[in-house]
Amino acid sequence: METTEFGIGAYTALEAARMVGMSPATLRRWLLGYVHDGRSEEALWRPQYAHDEDGVLLGFRDLIEARIVNALREKRIGLPMIRKCIERARKIVGDERPFSTQQFKTDGKTIFLEITRNLDEPVFIDLRKSQGVFKRVVEPSLQDLDFGPTGAERWWLLHGKKTIVADPARSFGQPILTDYGISTARVVEIVEAEGSVDRAAKVYEIKPRVIRDAIAYEASIGNRKAA
To answer: Among candidates 184, 161, 189, which has minimal Cα distance to 174?
Structure first.
């Protein structure tokens, strides 16, 4: 795999899929392309890292793009329609990864209405009638994200809380305790080794509630069903 770069984040397909809540194999197809009914389909977007024989490596913005595309797929919107949306959004926003840009966050409702215009996907038609095409499908995936000039910069992984974060400028974007910098996976190991949350909190000087948040997060991504 390509050498990781500071500030971009680095996730294997398995790690990213686990965070998003989807199948790693599906995510690889989105990023590497695939063959369908004897026809070769290109990748949905170009990953931040070049892939090689060792596999695919995602950056943080790839992770956010995958999160939004997965939200569309969960609404049973077909990949051909999603591909058209990405291509149209790319032209409007002027970015290879349009869904993870500040502009999309700010003007997403307008942009999404434009990119879905005249698409005959039944789900789009129903959502347009209810005036909820953006609010019901995409907006939830933009929640808990911080944006900067270059796009999405931070993902607060527990809704409404800022104890657990994925930040590409810290630990290559792996889920960590915001105030301590320890990975959530490592926190679970610590609690298992120490025998209790209270013991782990005392030994490592971490607030018990933050440890519980880490455990809750790890449990949530462990229980997510593949798409």
So the answer is: 184
